[in-house]
Amino acid sequence: MEKKPTDELNEILENTKPEQVGAYFQDNRKFLVENRKSFYTYFTDILAEKRIKLNYVYSFADVSESYGGQIVRMEKHTKNRDLILRLCIAGHLSLDETNRALKLYGMRELYAKDKRDVILIVAINNRIYQLAEIDDLLQENGFAGLIKNEEN
After folding, report:
1. pTM (two decimals)
2. Does a structural domain hold residue 10?
3. How many domains does the chain contain in total?
4. φ/ψ of residue 121, rounded to 5
5. pLDDT tens readout for residues 107-116
6. Residues 93, 47: Cα–Cα separation, whole Å
7. In the prediction, which pLDDT does 71 show?
8. Rounded CA separation 32/134 (Å)
């Protein structure tokens, strides 16, 4: 997925006149956060680029298709960050993609100073997409795994 750093967008805005705002929106629409559906759009666009089907993601994230669909479409909102992380990992998202997905969902990004997050960052950076393997890493280091019952 093509990305444009926020710094680059800020540089463009430094020279943008009020009458050019519409053109800015048009030219940069895929980089802008638009609404509550932005997580859904972002997540499904990444999956489409990777040629990964949503039903595969639900299966590997250990979530039912109906519940996973409600969460991804944001028809039902979860506060369970691990559920969103499982979906991202099952979708083979990179660290940057995962952090953006978390942010769009309204959750905090993975943080390099949080010990549990460090394990997740290392797993994602090393393309470990098997949740059981990640759970083993987490549990070996004294942390709860990602696979557990969903909390609404």
Report:
1. 0.75
2. no
3. 1
4. -60, -45
5. 999 999 999 9
6. 8
7. 93
8. 32
